[in-house]
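task queued by scheduler; priority normal; single chain, no ligands, no partner chains; default sampling; output format set to structure tokens
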Amino acid sequence: ALVPPNRIRLPTPASGNIVYIKNIGGVPITIDGNPEINMGDTTHAKISSANVMTLNPFEHVTLQAVNDAQSPLTVGHMIISD
């Protein structure tokens, strides 16, 4: 299936990697976790549903990758700045 141009999937997490995303377009973009964003928590303002973020035009977010699952961490990306 084709992915709409305004929908992206985060890269495979590698611990320590920093991902900075800025929406420079005129429409919102949807970002899918790989596998999770913020350990599945949905309380951050940019998280539209579990493991899915929406960035409106000119919004940005910075994430840090985590690939070890030592409790309480889970594999995915953590929001470290918005």
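post-processing summary
- The chain is about 0% helix and 40% strand.
- The CA atoms of residues 24 and 58 lie 5 Å apart.
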